[in-house]
Write a structure and sequence with these properties.
Helix 1 crosses helix 3, helix 2 packs across helix 3 and helix 5 packs across helix 6. By secondary structure, the chain is α+β, with helices and mostly antiparallel strands. It has nine helices and six strands.
Length: about 240
């Protein structure tokens, strides 16, 4: 007779596969939406908060996610901010198939043999090529939807980006960065990207946070004037004009 609580091996394996699938969904949701509370995850995934906590505990044990204090933009509300869970570097690596070490080694070689100016030139040339696609997406929509269009174009390139309202403007949030580990060593990549956003949207933008610097999400503030005036920058200027 089978002991109480004992399950056949095939049942245990099926349960393990189901748990792993759900944990992947939890991690993917954090990747796509940025640092999230238990309540956020439960709502998005159709799970109970107890189930979400159980999977988060397992993911934290595996060093895939970590708890953080929620960052609050603008005026704080009363009470303590809800705890959020963000992906660790290890967690991001599970989704990231880029050749980080090779890219970093190549940029380091460029720096040693041609100077930091060559790295800046490379970063701007790379981002200018991307800007061509983003420019088309922006020009295809009304002015008030350009930040949203840019977010969708960035998502197509693997940045899991969203746009949301903010006091006196908007925030462009990139919840994933395929080159985060390289950008940590070579901030010129982030700087060139910020300049591109400014040129494409025709206004000065402000980078508030970056994944490369240890934040849970890359956040760029875009003044409200962006949604009121057509942008005048061409994609070819995205890599040249300062923010």
């Amino acid at each position: 007779m089978k002991n109480v609580g004992e399950a056949p091996q095939e049942e245990l394996a099926a349960g393990s596969r189901s748990d792993r699938s759900t944990r992947n969904r939890v991690a993917r949701s954090i990747l796509d939406h940025g640092p999230s509370t238990v309540a956020d995850l439960a709502k998005r995934l159709g799970l109970t908060q107890a189930a979400v906590r159980r999977h988060l505990d397992a993911l934290a044990h595996e060093n895939v996610v970590e708890p953080r204090e929620q960052r609050v933009y603008g005026a704080r509300t009363r009470g303590r901010p809800a705890k959020v869970f963000a992906l660790t570097d290890c967690g991001r690596d599970a989704f990231d198939q880029s050749y980080d070490k090779l890219a970093a080694d190549a940029l380091r070689w460029i720096t040693e043999h041609h100077g930091e100016g060559a790295v800046v030139a490379f970063a701007k040339a790379r981002i200018a090529a991307q800007a061509e696609t983003y420019k088309k997406a922006i020009e295809a929509v009304p002015a008030e939807r350009r930040t949203e269009a840019l977010a969708k174009a960035l998502t197509t390139d693997g940045y899991a980006a969203t746009a949301r309202s903010a006091p006196v403007g908007e925030q462009l949030c990139q919840h994933h960065c395929p080159v985060a580990h390289v950008a940590e060593q070579f901030p010129q990549l982030c700087e060139a990207e910020t300049e591109m956003f400014s040129a494409l949207l025709g206004t000065h933008v402000q980078r508030l946070a970056t994944i490369a610097h240890g934040d849970g999400v890359c956040t760029t503030f875009i003044p409200r004037s962006t949604t009121q005036h057509p942008h005048s920058a061409s994609a070819s200027t995205a890599g040249r004009n300062p923010a």
